[in-house]
Amino acid sequence: MNELVIRLNATTRAARTLRHAVREHLGPESGDAELCVTELLANVVRHLGEGTPVTLRISGRAARTRVELTDPAPAARPTPREAAGDDESGRGLALLDALALRWGVSQGQGTKTVWCELDPGHSRHGRVAVITGG
């Protein structure tokens, strides 16, 4: 199985590094995976704090790509929420839900993994409006 595993500390600056690694690993059809990795990492930074150790694992390629981000906080489970139109955050899991075929959370011994499965041959990227401030 073709797999990418990266261990690092979650920081806002690490998002660029992870996106680049995902692109190198998956190739030009990596847009959805890059977005998912960015959102998963942002959730760790926001809810667990800068410097939290995480492990990114990407497996599969052709029929289905699985993206996993593991952190050391099994009790801090992500909860989807409804963001109001003027909220600056709260849309990460909605974005994950829109892009992924399915997603979920699994707990290990002292860890939590948020995962999603993507169809690399059918990007959903075009169905989601991503708005960035400037």
Structural account:
29% of the residues lie in helices and 29% in strands. The chain is of the alpha+beta class and 134 residues long. Helix 1 runs antiparallel to helix 2 (31-48). It is globular and about 35 Å long.
Major pleated sheet: 5 strands, antiparallel
**Beta-strand percent range:** 25-35%
What Rg, in angstroms, do the CA atoms define?
14 Å
Q: What string, H for helix and E for strand, traces the elements in order? A: EHHEEHEE
Gross geometry: globular
Number of helices: 3
- Main β-sheet, spatial strand arrangement: 1-2-3-5-4
| Average of the residue pLDDT scores | 83
Structural class: alpha+beta
Distance between the termini: 41 Å
Please bin the fraction of helical residues. Answer: 25-40%
Low-confidence stretches: 125-134
> What is the number of beta strands?
5
Helices and strands, with pairings:
Elements: E1 3-10, H1 14-26, H2 31-48, E2 52-60, E3 65-71, H3 92-99, E4 102-108, E5 111-118
Antiparallel strand pairs: 1-2, 2-3, 3-5, 4-5
Helix pairs in contact: 1-2, 2-3
Structure in a nutshell:
The protein is of the alpha+beta class and 134 residues long. Helices cover 29% and strands 29% of the residues. Mean pLDDT is 83; it is low at 125-134.
Entry keywords:
single chain, 134 residues, alpha+beta, 5-stranded antiparallel beta sheet, 3 helices, 5 strands, disordered C terminus
